[in-house]
Design a protein that fits this description.
Largest sheet: 5 strands, mixed
Strand content: 15-25%
Strand order of the largest sheet: 4-3-1-2-5
Distance between the termini: 37 Å
Helix content: 25-40%
Radius of gyration: 21 Å
Length: 296
């Protein structure tokens, strides 16, 4: 529809400079308004879409892959990734010349693009607003491995603003070093740094900042199933939620997690096929407040 609005975000890989103007041109040619928000983590897209009343969100990223790769994640007006059914429909049009050439903007007016200056500030303020002010957090020494990706600036800033001592590694993207032997795909350097600095905890992000791997103070990686169990325990103890919600994970999750949730917290575990989109769809179906994959 004319006057629709789209948010375009990207990670730090070199080809983002090529894709961003191309995609922008496409939307503008159809009379749409484009808001460019620069490099930010993928989860910032649905949030900015909500606050800026956008109809479509686009994240230019190849997630945890190295810089030679790139891709596009589309979000619908509800802020969820578009379904594989819709993806298939779009691909059918794009790959069929006859159908593709029918897409025309007969209006003389094209859209316009603007760059949003404070996107990163908006997102970090939102993240901090979700924290319970009553919970007093002791000052921690935290090592962050930003994977030379989209979290390189926003992650260290947030933890520092929350009063922690922050040591950042792999936070100097040059367009080619994203996910290169660092971040969530390789926590070796993070583990070493945590031990070296006698830090309390270490967090590693992937290129587009939607995957998190945690290492403890001894530099050992914490299994994702344990993190999901920890979140479940926290939510149950908040008393705000009854224990009726199921926790959604994928078929990769350990039976130990299922037993722990049932025996200790009286929560059932439901499994979806692998992929965050499948986890989210199952969460919506079961009215669940917690879901995740142990891959990050």
């Amino acid at each position: 529809k004319i006057n629709s609005r789209v948010i375009i975000c990207k990670d730090t890989r070199l080809s983002g400079y090529l894709y961003e103007p191309l995609i922008t041109a496409g939307f503008i040619s159809m009379g749409m308004e484009v808001i460019l928000v620069g490099p930010l983590p993928t989860p910032a897209v649905p949030h900015l879409m909500r606050t800026l009343r956008a109809d479509i969100g686009v994240m230019i990223t190849a997630s945890h892959n190295t810089y030679e790769y790139n891709g596009i994640k589309f979000f619908n007006s509800d802020g969820y990734k578009i379904t594989s059914k819709l993806e298939k429909k779009i691909e059918d049009i794009v790959l069929n010349k006859k159908k593709y050439f029918k897409i025309l903007n007969s209006e003389v007016n094209t859209g316009k693009a603007i760059r949003l200056k404070d996107a990163s500030g908006r997102y970090s303020e939102f993240l901090k607003s979700t924290l319970d002010k009553k919970v007093k957090i002791k000052k921690l020494k935290i090592v962050l491995d930003c994977g030379n990706g989209a979290t390189y600036e926003i992650a260290p800033n947030i933890f520092w603003e929350l009063g922690h001592e922050v040591i950042s590694i792999n936070n100097k993207p040059d367009g080619k070093n994203i996910n290169y032997n660092c971040g969530a795909v390789n926590v070796g350097k993070l583990s070493k740094k945590v031990v070296e600095e006698k830090a309390d905890i270490g967090f590693a992000f992937d290129g587009d900042g939607d995957r998190l791997i945690i290492v403890d103070d001894k530099g050992s990686e914490i299994d994702g199933d344990k993190i999901i169990a920890l979140f479940a325990k926290y939510l149950i103890n908040k008393k705000k939620y009854n224990s009726k919600f199921p926790v959604i994970t994928t078929v990769m999750s350990n039976l130990g997690l299922e037993n722990f949730l049932l025996r200790n917290l009286d929560i059932t575990l439901k499994r979806s096929s692998v992929g965050d989109i499948n986890v989210i769809q199952e969460m919506q179906k079961c009215d669940s407040i917690l879901g995740g994959e142990q891959s990050g």
